[in-house]
Amino acid sequence: MSTSSGTTTVHLLRHGEVHNPAKILYGRLPGYRLSAAGEEMASVAAKWFLDRDVTHLVSSPLERAQQTAAPIAAALSLPVTIDERLIEAGNAFEGLRVGVGDGALRVPKHWWKLRNPFRPSWGEPYVEIAARMLAAAEAARDAARGHEAVLVSHQLPIWTLRLHVEGRRYVHDPRRRQCGLASVTSLTFDGDKIVGVSYAEPAGATDPDAVPGA
Fold this sequence. Notes:
Blueprint (H helix, E strand, L loop, with lengths): L6 E8 L21 H13 L5 E6 L3 H14 L3 E3 L43 H18 L4 E6 L1 H11 L18 E7 L2 E8 L14
Parallel strand pairs: 1-4, 2-3, 2-4
Antiparallel strand pairs: 1-5, 5-6
Helix pairs in contact: 1-2, 3-4
């Protein structure tokens, strides 16, 4: 049963572009910071939230997400809460190049990791990603009842949550995720129930092949 009536919006913001000259799938590895372009994306995203009723700001523990949250915190005078549930998905290919034809997928010893795309066998199960992301979104909803919250996370967790909310299959082509750099996927709650999903790209569209493993 809902503890409050009215509308609450939880915005899921993907972090900006990361400095990754080696083009590896960096996943949860430390030390991967925003590029200069990524810092600009974070600033643009912060401006997008200026006229909104944001009262709660949360970030993944990873550095690139906290960097993306920082301009919002400064613009809105809000503290940043860290929520481990917003972290990037675990992946067995972390630290490797995964481009078709020039990366780990060429090596037979890695093919076993691809045996089950439905789970997926190469990383954190989709059902677990969706469960933790939904829990984080619901906690933010409760903290911002009647207002808006911003959660800074990563592409696959955000997209998996959207697939879950919309009742779609988890298995998908990564190139077709609607979750560009510094994009905003917004969940609208009426009380405790999700009644709408919307999407915006404050920093503009992203080439789906531009940034691996983000």
